[in-house]
Amino acid sequence: MNIYVLVKRTFDTEEKLVISGGKIQEDGAEFIINPYDEYAIEEGIKVRDEHGGEVTVITMGGEDAEKQLRTALAMGADKAVLINTEDDVEEMDQFTSAYILAEYLKDKEADLILAGNVAIDGGSGQVGPRVADLLNINYVTTITSLQIEGEKVTIIRDIEGDAEELETSLPLLVTAQQGLNEPRYPSLPGIMKAKKKPLEELELDDLDIDEDEVEAKTETIEIFLPPAKAAGRILEGDISNQVSELVGLLKNEAKVI
Amino acid sequence: MSKKVLVLGETREGSLRNVSFETIAAAKKISGGGEVVSVLIGDSVGEFGAELVNYGADRVITVEHPHLKSYTSDGFGQAMMAVIEQEQPGALVFGHTAVGKDLSPKIASKLQTGLISDVTDIEGEGEDAVYIRPIFSGKAFEKVKNKGGVDFITIRPNNIAPLEREERSGDVSSLSVDITNLRTIIKNVVRKSAEGVDLSEAKVIVAGGRGVKSESGFEPLQELADLLGGAVGASRGACDAEYCDYSLQIGQTGKVVTPDLYIAAGISGAIQHMAGMSNSKVIVAINKDPEANIFKVADYGIVGDLFEVIPMLTEEFKKVMK
Question: Measured between alpha carbons, how far is residue B119 from residues A115, B129, B155, B282 in Å?
Answer without folding.
Answer: 23, 12, 5, 20
